[in-house]
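Replying to the earlier thread about multi-chain prediction with a worked example.

Input:
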Amino acid sequence: MKLYEIAHSRAGDKGNTLTLSLIPYKEEDYALLCEKVTVARVRRHLSELVKGDVVRYELPNIASLLFVCHDALAGGVTTSLRMDAHGKTLSYALLEMDNEALPCQLL
Amino acid sequence: MKDKIRIGCGAGFSGDRLDPSIVLVEKGTLDYLVLECLAERTIALAQKRKLQDPTKGYDPLLERRIESLIELLVSRKVCLITNMGAANPIAAAEKVVQIAKARKINLKVAAITGDDVFDRVDFGKPALETSQPISNAGNPVSANAYLGAVGIIDALKSKADVIITGRIADPSLFIAPMIHEFGWSLEDFDLLGKGTVIGHLMECAGHITGGYFADPGKKDVPDMAHLGHPFVDVSRDGSGTISKVEGTGGIINLLTAKEQLLYEVVNPFEYYTPDVIADFTSVQLMQVGPNVVKVTGGSGKARPSTYKVSVGYQASYLGEGEITYGGSNAIARAKLAGETVRERLMVDFPDLRIDLIGESSVHGKEISFTSRPYEIRLRVVGTSPSSAKAALVGEEVEALYTNGPGGGGGVRKNVTEVIGIVSTLIPREQAAHKLTLLQS
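Result:
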């Protein structure tokens, strides 16, 4: 199953850096996301788009994760040749992650 | 001194809708209306308009926004704070005075300047992003420091009705009235941190009311067509309650608030503004009613000793062309077209980008169920230092009409000037704000 089934996300941009929140619909799924959606998996999933480091912040106060992806926007909104130069659609790229490790009973 | 103030946010970017701000002022019982209309690149483009005409360089929608709001602002006694001054806050303030005079309205209008530091930036210094000298990126056209709340606070002390700024950090537009009304100390970084959290939640207007959120079946938003923009009741202790005008569309809940709290945040432990370094990791959000979210917590530490400066530079010209292929084998014909254009432009555009787009634009949805994908729109894009050369990209795409695969249609082409942005830092004393008061 995809992350899309249990979480939502919004993308943001700062220069050539992409930010992706990952917010479970049910707060009790937060621990599972922390365990399964690791930096390594996100890097692998977005490897075609994200060229730099990925930093993950855990925010238990709002039961959410934040991924900060460097060198991810082909130069950034001002000079990128990408159609979506802000990277605004990339939240849905993260949610496409097929999380085979997530148990199906969550659905 | 008040214990609670209500601040509405009626615009979250330069091109935002006008109607929600009118509803906010008319029915929102606001004390303050903030219109946040300035993005990183917006000010560089405004600087260019100012160079062409010294009476311009403010937000292109300023007249329309002010004309639609001015009488309501006066009758409802709402103070307007906006960064629509862009590259020319004085000219913007003069325009507001002119609009007020034509309506025989008495207004005190403040312009905050001092963010334009073009003559003080050393363009030989390395840019923060590249570690290369700023001037290596391209010819600089603008340099604006992100100023903090103090200029607006001065304007509020002068009892200005309308406050127009250039580049000021977005959350500072919101914490200025908090500091002014609650008598917060500029050194109370805990309170400034809390206020900055609220400002950040509010600054994108419709972002927190469901305006960039809906996903049918997963995250449904009622009556999006009449989306309301938010207001917040801020208390003296730095907590806030975010809501919207009754009867407007949209939704405010924990999901919309969380998405906005983390939006464009690169380090939730240290969110830099010119007023404070805020910490978002202790923020608590609570749904306290339908479309009402309470925000508590958050903190801060001492502000940075420098201002961040955004430098706009002439990067290049971007040339684009698009053409659509439909029906059987559409994708193969689109790919052939793309490769043909690539071969023709290879010498001038080694980094040409080719995109394949499409769903149901040329023949409707029902004509065939056997050819998939039914249509493909080819987009070709490249950059060049020269405008004439950039135009070659669109010209080659257009030439596919008689020099490419069969059945291509709907060509569009354009050339855009690209203004890039890099950042640097400047000592605070080199960017002192200046307050100019005008009276209608």
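The mean pLDDT of chain A is 91.

Feel free to reuse this layout for your own posts.
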